[in-house]
Every structure is written in C-alpha cells, then in structure tokens.
Amino acid sequence: ALPIWPVTQENMATVMMPVQRGESAARPGSYADLTPDWTHAEVSTGTTIMAVEFDGGVVIGADSRTTTGAYIANRVTDKLTPIHDRIYCCRSGSAADTQAIADAVAYQLGFHSIELDEPPLVHTAASLFKEMCYKYREDLTAGIIVAGWDSRKGGQVYSVPMGGMMVHQPFSIGGSGSSYIYGFVDSSYKKGMTKEECLTFTANAVALAMERDGSSGGVIRLAAITEGGVERKVILGNELPRFNIG
Q1: What is d(CA 49, CA 92) in angstroms, rounded to the nearest whole number?
Q2: Which entry of 35, 39, 45, 47 is annotated as an active-site residue?
C-alpha cells in the first residue's frame, strides 16, 4: 500500500508555496516538481527570416515554428507582420517583444501617414524600429527585417538586428536558422533577379535552414510586395523544396 501523507497546515503550505521566477523547482512535494522545464522558458520565434530586393519590389519569407525551450508551442506562426499597406517586418527573437515592437511601430506609422496624407516610406518604418530597439536594447530580444515598397525608392530591405543598428541591404537573413545558410545565400544571390527568381531563392534558403535548425520548421510563408500590393503564398510541409542532406 502507498504511504499516506498526512494533510497538515505545514504540509499544505509546502505544496501551495509558489515557485519564484528563476528559482529552482526542487522542493519535495511542490507542484513544480511535476512540470517540465519548458513551461518556464520564454516563448521564442527562434526562426529563419529573409528578405530580397528585386526591380519593382521585395520578397520576404519565414518559417512558422514558435518554441518555448525545446517544446514547439506553435507550428504555423505568421512571422511576416504587416506594418502598413506595402511595408512588412519579419520577426525573430522573443515572440512577445517582437509583437509589441511591431504593434507600436504600426501605430506610430499610421499617425505619420495621416499627417503626411500619403503612404509612409520604408526607411521611416525601419528608423522607428531602430529607435525602439536601440532605446530598449537592454530589455528586448528582437531581430527585425523591415521590407517594403514606396514611390520614392521602390523595393527596400533594412536589417535591424539586436542592439538597434540599421543597415540597408540588397538581401538580408536573420534568426537562429540563418547561421546555416550564409554560404548558400552568398553563392546563390545574383543582382537583378526577377520576382520569381527571388521567390525560389527565398524558399530554397529557408527550406535548407529548416533542415538543420531545430528551432525552425513548419511551413514556409512568402510574400511579394510591389506597387500593386502584396501577394502571399504558403509552402506546406509536403511541398517544401528537397535537398540531398548528408
């Protein structure tokens, strides 16, 4: 027969005592003993994101896996976040941090557009991300790629990594999966690619990262942003590009 643990005021206090954040859940008899480690981990978009310029617009892409530690919290996350009609951002890092920043920038950019009575510039959106990421650099875990089209400069890609730097690039990759594909993108990128070539380039790069990176996975979400608007596409798991992985 199992031993009966007497229910006393002292024992109940031990069971019900909360575990503080960052404290080890090692007290015998506490509910925290029954919960796995990932329940205390930060929700992360731990990610592969990418954007490429072409003549007339940009192509953006991302995987769809969101993790809390080793646990997959969401396998169909949309990491391509609209900031304005023809301006999007790709999010990597803490899911909560990047969502909050994107919401704040979209709010500010909307008022800016109303004051100007015209669509905002992609550079303006990227600058707002840069200012917020730099101002709160000690508190945020956020790597952002801002991409879109405007009437002044056409398609543009800006990288805003952790710390608040901003760099204009012809293409940019980010997230945990990006470290696996630097060689591929450096060798495959060609200046002057068409929209279709950029879509293929982005899909292949993200698929390769998903093969190697445990924090990237799910489906591939793509979007092409031009003067005519935004065309979105989803590549499902059984339709992903396949490669001979050694």
Answers
A1: 7
A2: 47
